[in-house]
Amino acid sequence: MYRQNRCYSCMSPMYEEFFKNGLDRYFTPPKNFSYQCDEPMNPESMHLVSCRTICLTVQQDLYIMGQPTGKRLFMRGCALTLARRGLNNHTLSMFDRYDICREMSAADLFRHDRADSQRVRVCSCLGDR
GO annotations under biological process (predicted)? Predict the structure, then answer.
């Protein structure tokens, strides 16, 4: 019998303001906007969602006016539902066999019309996370 994974559904709190200004056109709102989603992850009180594929953690360095702030933002969720238009299949296939982390451009990961070339760190988990 096929077993579904359970993935955390959360984002760094700064994303909540971005969702109020249109980010929800591109990403599915998580169950939690919380500092507990950041590194180090604190799973206490984090909501989980069922997932038929892998769980992903996407880490983005925050830049202001082209300058790194030292702050990192996190998205955690199911690969199938994290982004409204989904993920690029050729990229997703790199993550579906092992628990791994890779750096890549956001444009290579997300299926957006105007995806940015900013680098993100993506980690996959084949089991519950």
Answer: olfactory behavior; response to odorant
